[in-house]
Structures are given as structure tokens and as C-alpha cells.
Write a structure and sequence with these properties.
Blueprint (H helix, E strand, L loop, with lengths): L16 H13 L8 H4 L2 H33 L4 H7 L2 E2 L5 E2 L2 H42 L10 E3 L1 E2 L2 E2 L4 H21 L1 H8 L8 H12 L7 H10 L4 H9 L5 E7 L5 H14 L4 E7 L10 H10 L4 E3 L12 E11 L5 E12 H17 L9 H10 L1 H9 L2 H22 L1 H4 L18 H4 L1 H18 L12
Parallel strand pairs: 6-10, 7-8
Antiparallel strand pairs: 1-2, 3-6, 4-5, 7-9, 9-10
Helix pairs in contact: 3-5, 5-6, 5-9, 6-9, 7-8, 13-19, 14-19
Length: 483
């Protein structure tokens, strides 16, 4: 027993002078590690301080990089507001920003995912650029070549030359799909199932807003298992690569714009022949139109394609019932071409069919949706920005679409206009058309006639086109411009 406890000093018990001297000797020759002498205190902390300094410096560098990555993730739109809130740093008393280890890991993976997606976008742009001339030639052949309906086929163009989808647009499309399918489709289920016991996409607008408020108020948080879900969706494997590539169904964008004096049914005949013979591999058809408005390819014709060629997806849900009457036939085509080395390579093509007049309406009306999406309609051209500001187009759009009654009235106007155009284009209905061209005033929006009627939008579009041509600088691949 004495041997086991001989190293313990029992304070408060009187000791002999000889014992005190012995204790002094022990203290001098064998320091008590709990009561270090000055010589030890000046040595050990020096080692600890250096080590701590290095760790502190490394941590500061990691936090600084994480903060840069966090700002990048915010800028590139990879996450929604809810996730960005959960990943935001805390501010210390000294004013510095700090992240938890889990936050740091997710933000780092997100930054890598952005780089991964941008690499895919660049490669797809290169592939599209190399393929576009051949694709246009092949599809024109399907429609009888330049002497027949092939002459009505138009591709996206830039500076007067056909162009495939640019890297920045490809990247924006990929991140949009990632946000919809992965973040809202998987990650947000974590919170939706906790609060409502059902998937996030099945929540209505009010429920989704309550999920957001619950996150912002700190009522629901991410645990370690949830972070694993995030890690999985931020993967950069071969499977993730193939998935992202498959999201870009319009690498080559083509439109068949048919003039008023041409036979609309002829385009359907060319397509039917090519699809049934296997010359055209159509994978999906969307006949966008509203009730009582004729689609450009009849539903009977499209159903024939589906019955004859298994695998064609015919979209028949409400997705093609456009509330505003927007009308076009859109199809995805998986077209194979040979590259310069003779290797067969698949290229995704999106083909839309519409009339000349409806195409023009769709183009001029797009300004409204660009404003609502907060896009840079001025294109950084001071003269164009001043023009839009002077006429007050932004203010008018925000007023109409910020008021449910006015918005519904304008949508009714759009639908009436699309219906009137299609009835005029269809020989069967043209003879019995019983109403005149719609006027915005008739829908209770007379105060916006000078700005938001289709005639006014057409005039605005013409002026904007002239200003772009006169003052705009040529755009270069990589310029960030969201679709």
C-alpha cells in the first residue's frame, strides 16, 4: 500500500524538517509534471505554441478557401436558398467566418461539382460545334432538301452562322436539372418527410414555403445521415457524367418555320415517312397547345408514330397544355453522325415546328419572361438599357404579373391571340372564324396597350434589334447568359 501511494503528497499534514528537505531534493531532481518548474514552463509551451500556430494557420487557410467556395456555390446556383442557409458560416467574435467540418466537406464537394459540370458543358459545346453542319444537312434531306421543306429549317445562329448550344447555356441547363432532380427531388425530401411525411415534389406551394420557414427558423436541421445524402448527389462518377450529358436534349437546336402560304400537313408527311423508315430516331414528342387550339402535328399522326415505333415517348400530360396557348410541336431526336475519324457518334437534336407568324409572336413575347426571370435584358449595352428604362417596359411587366387579376387577364389575351393565329393558319377553321384579332384593351388592360400588346412588343423588339446591331459588341463563347 505504501509503495502504491508514495508519489502522492498529502497536503495539510505536518512534516518534519528532514522530510521538507527531502521534498525539495525530489522537486529539483524529478519535477512534478503537475507543478512544473520555470525551466520546464519555458520549454514545453514553446513546442505547443508552434504546433498550435501551425494548426491555426492551416485552419484559417481552410476556412478562407471554404468561404470562397461557398460564394462560388451561391453564384453558380447549384443549391437552393434553404441549403445555402444551412451551409452559411458563423461569424466569430473577431469577425471571421467559420464552417463546421460537415459544412466544409459539402461546400468543397459542391465546388468540385461545379468544375465537373463546366467541364462537361465545354466538351458538349465542342461536340456540337463539330457536328452541327452535318446534322443540318442530314435533317434537311429528311424534309426533301433545299428545294422542298428543307429550306424552312433554321438552326440557332450567332453572328450569322449556325451554332450549337454554348457551354454557358449547357451549364445553366445542367445545374437547373440538378437543382430540380437532385436537390428538390432527393435532398429536400429530408425535410418534407419530417414535416409532412411525403416527398417534397408532392407538397403544394404553401407547404413548400412552410418547409423553407422551418429551415430558416432552425426547427429542422441536417444530421450526419442527411450529409451523406448530400455527398451522394454531389458525386462526380461516370454515372454522374452520363446523367448530366443526357439532360442536354437540345445540343443542336433546329426550327422548321413554315410560311403562311405553305401546306402545314406536308411537314407531317415528311416526318412520318422518315420515322417509319428508321431514318429519323425520334425519342420524344411534345405537342404544345391549349384547348381548342390546333397543334402543328395532329394527335392522330403522333399516335401513329408511337404505335409504329416502340420507344417513342408521347407527352400527353398537362405539361403540353400551355395556359397561355403557346403552340409548337417539339421533338427530341437522337441522331448519329460519323466524326472525322469515321467513328459513329450520337448527337441530341431538338426540332420544333411552328408557323412564321407564331414564331415571331413567341420571339417578341420572350422579353416578358426574361424580365420576370430577372435576366439582363439590356445585354450591358448602355443605349439598349436606356431605351428599356425610358419606355418603362420593366415597370409595366412587374405591375401586370405582380397582380393576379391583371396577370390572368393578360394570359387570357395571349391565349386568344395564339388561338386566332392558329385558326387563321388552318384551312378547315379559317372559313368559319367568327372573331377579329384580339385587342389588349378588351381584356381590361388598355393602359398597357402601348407596351404589352403584341403589336407594341413587336415594335419594341425591332428597336431593340437595331440598338443591339449598332451598339452591341460581338459575344464570345463562355459569356454568362442564362437561357
Amino acid at each position: 500500500m505504501i509503495k502504491l501511494f508514495s508519489h502522492i503528497s498529502f497536503r495539510g499534514i505536518p512534516q518534519k524538517e528532514s522530510d521538507k528537505n527531502t521534498e525539495k531534493v525530489k522537486t529539483t531532481t524529478t519535477p512534478n509534471t503537475l507543478e512544473r518548474t520555470p525551466s520546464i514552463d519555458t520549454f514545453v509551451p514553446t513546442v505547443e505554441t508552434a504546433s498550435a500556430a501551425r494548426a491555426k494557420k492551416a485552419n484559417a487557410l481552410t476556412q478562407a478557401q471554404t468561404l470562397r467556395d461557398y460564394e462560388l456555390v451561391k453564384k453558380e446556383g447549384l443549391f437552393n436558398d434553404e441549403l445555402l442557409f444551412l451551409l452559411q458560416p458563423k461569424t466569430t467574435a473577431s469577425g471571421s467566418k467559420t464552417f463546421t467540418p460537415n459544412q466544409t466537406k459539402i461546400i468543397n464537394l459542391a465546388a468540385k461539382k461545379i468544375s465537373f459540370y463546366k467541364g462537361i458543358a465545354k466538351r458538349l459545346e465542342t461536340s456540337g460545334t463539330e457536328s452541327i453542319d452535318r446534322v443540318i444537312k442530314d435533317i434537311k434531306t429528311v424534309f426533301g432538301g433545299e428545294k422542298n421543306y428543307g429550306k424552312y429549317l433554321k438552326a440557332r445562329s450567332k453572328n450569322g452562322k449556325p451554332t450549337s448550344k454554348e457551354a454557358v447555356s449547357i451549364y445553366n441547363k445542367i445545374t437547373k436539372e440538378f437543382l430540380d432532380k437532385k436537390i428538390n427531388g432527393e435532398v429536400m425530401n429530408i425535410f418534407a418527410k419530417r414535416l409532412y411525411q411525403k416527398p417534397y415534389k408532392l407538397l403544394d406551394k404553401t407547404e413548400k414555403e412552410l418547409v423553407k420557414l422551418s429551415i430558416m427558423d432552425g426547427d429542422v436541421k441536417l444530421d450526419s445521415r442527411d450529409y451523406k445524402v448530400l455527398e451522394k448527389v454531389l458525386g462526380t462518377s461516370k454515372k454522374d457524367y452520363e446523367e448530366a450529358v443526357d439532360w442536354i436534349k437540345d445540343l443542336i437546336g433546329l426550327r422548321m418555320i413554315i410560311p403562311e402560304d405553305a401546306d402545314m400537313n406536308k411537314a407531317a408527311e415528311y416526318l412520318t415517312k422518315a420515322i417509319l423508315s428508321g431514318k429519323l430516331n425520334v425519342t420524344r414528342v411534345s405537342n404544345y397547345h391549349s384547348k381548342h387550339i390546333y397543334p402543328y402535328i395532329s394527335q392522330d399522326t403522333v399516335k401513329l408514330w408511337k404505335q409504329s415505333v416502340p420507344g417513342i415517348e408521347l407527352v400527353q400530360s398537362n405539361a403540353i397544355r400551355k395556359k397561355n396557348g403557346y403552340t409548337t410541336t417539339q421533338m427530341n431526336i437522337l441522331h448519329e453522325i460519323k466524326d472525322k475519324n469515321g467513328k459513329v457518334r450520337p448527337v441530341w437534336v431538338e426540332l420544333q415546328i411552328r408557323s412564321e407568324q407564331l414564331n415571331k409572336i413567341g420571339q417578341i413575347e420572350h422579353l416578358i419572361y426574361d424580365i420576370l426571370a430577372n435576366k439582363n435584358i439590356g445585354k450591358n449595352i448602355p443605349e439598349l438599357e436606356k431605351y428599356y428604362e425610358t419606355i418603362g417596359i420593366k415597370k409595366a411587366v412587374k405591375e401586370v404579373f405582380g397582380n393576379p387579376t391583371k396577370e390572368n387577364a393578360y394570359v387570357d389575351y395571349e391565349r386568344a391571340m395564339y388561338s386566332w393565329i392558329r385558326h387563321n393558319e388552318n384551312p378547315k377553321s379559317k372559313a368559319i372564324l367568327s372573331y377579329d384579332k384580339p385587342i389588349l384593351t378588351e381584356f381590361g388592360l388598355g393602359e398597357y396597350e402601348h407596351l404589352l400588346s403584341f403589336e407594341s412588343l413587336d415594335r419594341i423588339d425591332e428597336t431593340a434589334t437595331l440598338l443591339k446591331a449598332k451598339y452591341g459588341k460581338p459575344t464570345h463563347t463562355g459569356t454568362k447568359e442564362k437561357k
